[in-house]
Amino acid sequence: MQSTASFSYQPIVDALNAKSVDQALLMLAEHSEQLASDPQFWDYQVAALLMAERNTEVKTAYQACAALNTLYPETIINAIKAAERTGDMEWLEELSIQLEGCGTEHQFAAARYRADALWKQKKYHQSLVACRNLLKLTPESVAALRMLIKNLLNLAQVEEAVIEANRAVTLLPDNAELVLMRFQALIAYGAVERGFELTNAWCNDNAELVHPALASALANFSQYHSKLTVAEKRSVCERFGQLASTYVASTMSWQTTFEAEKTLHIGLLSGDLRSHPVGYFMEALLQHSPQYDIVVTVFDTLNEGDNFTTHLRSLVDQWHNVVDFTNQQIARLIQSNHIDILIDLHGHTTGQRLGVCAFRPAPLQLTWHGFLGTTGVPEIDYAFADPLCVPQGSEGEFIEDLLYIPSYYCFKPIAIAPPVAPPPAIKNGFITFGSLNKPDKHNQGVLSLWAKVLDSVPNSRLLLKGKGFDLPIYRLEFERKLLLCGIDLARVELQPPSARRLFLQSYQDIDIALDPFPYSGATTTVEALWCGVPVLALSGDRMVWRMADSILTHAGHPEWVAANHEEFVKLVVELASNTDRLVQLRSNQRENLLSSPLFDSAGYAENVHNALRTAWRKRCASGEW
After folding, report:
1. Radius of gyration of the chain from Cα atoms?
2. 456-495 as b/e, with b when 16 or more CB fall inside 10 Å?
3. Cβ–Cβ under 8 Å, residues 75 and 83
4. For the purposes of burial, counting CB atoms within 10 Å of the CB of 58, is it exposed (0-12), middle (13-18) or buried (19 or more)?
5. pLDDT digits (tens, 9 = 90+) for 318-370
6. Residues 6+ apart with CB under 8 A from 142
7. N or C: lower Cβ tally within 10 Å for the chain?
8. Which CB contacts under 8 angstroms, 24+ apart, belong to 162-170?
């Protein structure tokens, strides 16, 4: 038998260099007994298995090599790649420590892998230390700077995150990833509009450096900005669409037939089919899908499912987890599933994969629910709307055509809501106004109007609840905004976020809910109504501002929508001075809602499916395929 010392690995090396991985693995297998005690054999085995994408087997081969007490740096690096692919972060952490012992030339890579492994295990304190050590080695490492800021945000050290983000952008002013991190830090700080303005200005000055993630973040938070015009908001979204198109060499051919009355294959592109507003909206529709000639496939972009996801999965035909796929890979999967109509349910919200739509993997593409405005993506054909949230003459807000249904939203009874309680004013002796919308929606314009409300109703209070109020720095910044608007902090209660059951219970402490603008409430509006609380809103000039208008009108209360600030204050005063009316609303509002279009899930499903079929027929009649 040939000894390991005299064995030549050159044919295996040649096969690997030629990417003939099957041949290399075959040769290794032929000599496995002879060479099992040779670390070099396991080094090549690790390399070959990695090249063959047999990632779980890499770990076994690596452990065999480690057992021989000889590890080559390239063996560790290949094992690290396998650990990243399989998501084995504990092993990645272990490997990074081993790589650190391979010499100074590997210090940076080892520190970077360790910081990443710790972060993905949610060991944020340890990852933060690792990032700081990494930055001592390479102060201008973008990856280290990004992870440093992300760790600080996850540790709720928001003020320091803003400081580090500003420092990073000053150090590397041409880096779009760091500009995005600064934007995210400012949002966490509660300075949404300031963050938007800084980031938008940078993008205008550095158009060639902007990447899609940054452009999408700006589009998402354009909904919160109180001073942007409709045209400016559309322009921000179009910038993303133009960028997304540059990543697509050519659009796809479709593996479907253009028959107007065939069974329709519907694809849902979303990570929000869970305990999330989008999940709640879609439940009513999906429960009625078996009555229609459709097949529903979900492409889950976040993989953050919960018990409600399990329920929704039972209502669809297929479910694919695509969180680790590239946009092109998702597009190919959609194409191979013969999807006729692809519906994006994110828009520019967290988890969005609008870049998939740029490949046009389906012959008909729509956007719905997640983002209330144009996506700016020219390959998306339609956006859903109703005549109240996008009235005639307002279509110019969109680059997409509009697919109208009678009501944009539909809800199911909220089973976990507590019983409707009497208005708190009865026991308190004063009116409590409230909003359980995201605090980021409460801009200076909103708070200034609510200051007039408090001034007009003596002894009244304001209750606000949501993410951010659990962070001292965010609360401090928000209290500063309240003071600048002339609101006495003694009349305001800021509550931290809570689980949905407790969240809904908070409505028992509110007499009248106030809707913010320009980002009005949708789910929160219906939840307030369901809990017996009237909601007063202001009419607006864009879809995202008109959602409460649409919901209140369909709930039978168009009189609760004011045309201007003066009328809003007048409505508030009239309702606040009529305790009997508040008592009466609490007694029958839930029952009235159940008989409204907002809770007619069967009618809603029929309207949506009719709209989709009509759009498909039109697509087939176009002859463009």
Report:
1. 28
2. ebeebbbbbbbebbebebbbebbeebbeebebeeebbebb
3. no
4. buried
5. 999 999 899 999 999 999 999 999 999 999 999 999 999 999 999 999 999 98
6. 172, 175, 177, 178
7. N
8. 162/186, 162/189
Q: What is the crossing angle of helices 21-30 and 10-17, to 10°? A: 160
SS (H, E, C) 31-54: CHHHHCCCHHHHHHHHHHHHHCCC
Give 12-20 contacts, CB < 8 A, sequence gap 24+: 12/44, 12/48, 13/44, 16/44, 16/47, 16/48, 16/51, 19/51
Question: What is the token pair recorded at 225?
Answer: 């900005």
Token digits of residue 43: 């080094």
The dihedral sign for the CA sequence 100, 106, 107, 110 = negative
pLDDT in tens, 393-427: 999 999 999 999 999 999 999 999 999 999 999 99
Work out the angle between the directed axes of helices 39-51 and 55-66 (0-180°, nearest 10). Answer: 170
Which band of pLDDT confidence, cut at 50, 70 and 90, is reported for residue 289? confident
- Structural contact between residues 68 and 98, judged by C-beta atoms closer than 8 angstroms: no
The DSSP symbol for 275 reads S
What share of the chain has pLDDT > 70, as a percent?
99
Question: How far apart, in Å, do the first and last CA atoms of the chain sit?
Answer: 65
Q: Length of the chain, please?
A: 625
Name the token pair of 344: 């994006």
Q: Report the 3 state secondary structure along 306-330.
A: CHHHHHHHCCCCEEEECCCCCHHHH
Task: Give the pLDDT confidence score for residue 5 in this predicted structure.
Answer: 65
Amino acid symbol at 589: Q
Secondary structure (H, E, C), 327-363? HHHHHHHHHHCCCCEEEECCCCCCCCCHHHHHCCCCC
CA-to-CA distance for 188 and 283, rounded, in angstroms? 31
At residue 269, φ and ψ (nearest 5 deg) are -100, 100
Q: How many Å apart are CA 545 and CA 543, to the nearest integer?
A: 5
| Residues 86, 91, 92, 95, CA torsion sign | negative
For residues 44 and 74, the answer to whether their CB atoms sit within 8 Å is no
Measured in whole angstroms, the distance separating CA 170 from the mean position of its chain's CA atoms is: 28
Q: Distance (Å, rounded) from C-alpha 503 to C-alpha 506? A: 5
Give the span between the Cα atoms of 251 and 266, in whole angstroms: 19
Give the closest residue to 183 by CA, choosing from 171, 201, 156: 201
Q: Show the tokens assigned to 609.
A: 């499916």
- Please give the pLDDT value at position 250: 80
With contact defined as beta carbons under 8 Å apart, do 427 and 618 qualify?
Answer: no
**Alpha-carbon distance values, 27 to 30, 39, 77 (Å):** 5, 16, 23
Confidence of residue 60 (pLDDT cuts 50, 70, 90): very high
Alpha carbon distances (Å) from 503 to 388, 424, 461, 516: 28, 16, 19, 18
Do 183 and 217 meet the contact criterion of CB atoms below 8 Å apart? yes
For tokens 């930055």, the residue is: 135
The first and second tokens of residue 18, run together, are 């030629």
DSSP label at 92? H
Residue recorded with tokens 């009248």: 512
